[in-house]
Amino acid sequence: MNTLVLGAGVTGITTAYYLAKAGHKVTVIERQQGAALETSFANGGQISACHTEPWATPATLIKIIKWLGRNDAPLRFRLMGDPKLWSWCARFLFNCTHSRALINTERMLRVALYSRDQLTKLKKDTGIAYDQLNKGILHIYKNPIEHAAASGRAKSMNDLGLERHIIDTAACVALEPALKSAADNNFISGGIFTPSDESGNTHAFSTALAELCISMGVEFHYNSPIKRLIVKDGRFKGLETEENTFESESCVVALGSYSPLVLKPLGINLPVYPAKGYSVTLPITNFKEAPHVSLIQDELKLVYSRLGNNLRVAGMAEIAGYNTNVDDERSQFVLKSALALFPGCGTPEMAEFWSGLRPQTPDSVPVLGSTKIDNLYLNTGHSTLGWTMACGSGKILADLISGKDLEIDLSGLEISRFS
Ligand SMILES: Cc1cc2nc3c(=O)[nH]c(=O)nc-3n(C[C@H](O)[C@H](O)[C@H](O)COP(=O)(O)OP(=O)(O)OC[C@H]3O[C@@H](n4cnc5c(N)ncnc54)[C@H](O)[C@@H]3O)c2cc1C
After folding, report:
1. Which residue among 172, 185, 281, 300 sits deepest, i.e. has the most Cβ atoms within 10 Å of its Cβ?
2. CA 40 to ligand 1 center in whole angstroms
3. CA-to-CA distance for 386 and 382, rounded, in angstroms?
4. Which residues span the domain enclosing 375?
5. pLDDT digits (tens, 9 = 90+) for 18-27
6. Which H or E element spans position 344?
7. Domain count, the chain
8. Whose CA is nearest to atom 16 of ligand 1?
């Protein structure tokens, strides 16, 4: 079957790979000049299935109120006169209950754990290299009350089959010796370690997989902004870019935060809103002082990944529309936080700053599967975990379009959950 994949972020590339593997003739349409140059470019690098949690929880609601007016707030809303934002916020509030958070965690976990298995198979099949480290993820807490609360949640996650170890400060340092100075400065009251989690460079992975796709016969059309999708008699027929028209028998929308803009003219209302985040990439100059184990710093909601000879630090979230300007104050805050945890590991003058738009759904669950147009499919809305969920999501879409039995249940993941 002839299939168009829209978008060459990590989601689009993995979809193209699994479709090509299943024997489809695949064409990828992308407005940038290469793969993974938008949100998949410089994210936190964590494949963090065992730390899967939705943003919308009762605790987040209380924290958002405390963070109001603070420029270093990990999550900040800039409410504007945008009706799409107001309706997104209403859905977000609806999901901030204990029972909704449990439902959403299960849905996210279903995709994240499946995805981790698919990534393992893909690595074995292809030998792809992307600065991957299988050293687990250590979530560190400064506040003992937060550590105790998270330890309670970790026990219930263990009941779901996840391996989470609750550990004290000394064990954190034993796992990651570069944390010694942070422990001496009372930055760590304890941690939660998930040995089966991983990290790696999403951009390196996506570009290498795109190369492999080309060798499998996938066609890439870069520098091709999509103008409109063409639907006739209730079926997807093709699309127009600024210079060309493409036709196909099926189509997968993997346009990240921009997916709703392309779908709206077709009467498909997708509640995905951009949530801007920041990252800092710090070349390591003192290797003894830099971590190997990937980390989550709880109170600041910052993630740390060792990517080759660089330390990637990422976090912050702003719900403020389609704006990718790098706010100097917020990105300097990320850098200073990293240097406070790992003093002297790199030279601040060499740091590279970046911002990207997470395709955020109000429940943090991706949107996978078919639409009311039966040959038009969605693989989008991966929110904070697009890298963690990319391989599983791509495989599910390829199986669905190929008419194969799905290896995980799609219920609660489709767009119909919002109607
Ligand atoms: C600061 C930050 C840290 C993060 N850390 C992590 C992490 O540690 N682990 C994790 O799992 N996830 C993380 N994420 C989330 C993850 O990066 C995203 O969920 C993921 O990159 C989304 O991938 P995507 O392919 O869906 O979207 P994108 O990467 O944005 O790809 C969409 C593509 O569509 C193209 N496009 C859009 N509109 C058009 C158009 N009209 N015509 C043609 N092409 C178009 C874009 O150019 C882009 O290439 C983080 C995100 C941020 C911002």
Report:
1. 172
2. 4
3. 5
4. 2-40+204-271+364-418
5. 999 999 999 9
6. none
7. 2
8. 386
